[in-house]
Amino acid sequence: MAVQDRRTALSTGLFGALMLLGAVVIIVDATRLPDQNSAMGPAVMPVMVAVLLGAVGIGLLVQAGLRLPGAARAELPGAWWRVVALVAVLLAFALLLPLIGYVLTATGLFVGAALLLGAPRRWALLAYGWALAAAVFFVFDRLIGLSLPSGPWGF
């Protein structure tokens, strides 16, 4: 078993707890759905998803509990600056979205987040970001009919 830092073990446990909490909320909401007197009522799928979500959450909690005692304290250089920069990129996305449209702002969000998180192949980030944003725009705006901000260029 590889040595993990304490923050990774704690965040794994926190994420597992959130998944478990989400599973409980989904099950409670599913039990409130009206019964339709059929073998497969409307609550079957949400309960199945909640059970799987809860199982993964429990697995993450157990994994974090096993790794936490042996976890080393490690400082990540520049971690706080990256968090602040990511928040700034998200704020720029929210502020620029109505002005320049979804595709360009989503591309900027993808590229900015990838660079801040240390993505390899920096030369391809712009192409990947634009392709992903254009595909999402096409699916949601054109195929599904949920309008996304198109900006001055129509995309």
The radius of gyration over CA amounts to: 21 Å
Approximate shape:
flat
Distance between the termini: 48 Å
User: Low-confidence segments, ≥5 residues, pLDDT <50?
Assistant: none
Please specify the SSE layout and strand pairing:
Elements: H1 6-31, H2 44-67, H3 79-100, H4 102-116, H5 125-144
Helix pairs in contact: 1-2, 3-4, 4-5
Keywords:
155 residues; mainly alpha; 2 domains; 69% helix; flat; transmembrane helix; transmembrane; DUF1468
Structural notes for this entry:
It is built from five helices and no strands. By secondary structure, the chain is mainly alpha-helical. The protein has two domains: 6-67; 79-144, no CATH class. Helix 1 packs antiparallel against helix 2 (44-67), helix 3 packs antiparallel against helix 4 and helix 4 (102-116) runs antiparallel to helix 5 (125-144). It is flat. The model has no long low-confidence stretch (mean pLDDT 85).
Quick structural summary:
The chain crosses the membrane at residues 12-31, 43-62, 83-116, 122-140. This protein is mostly helical.
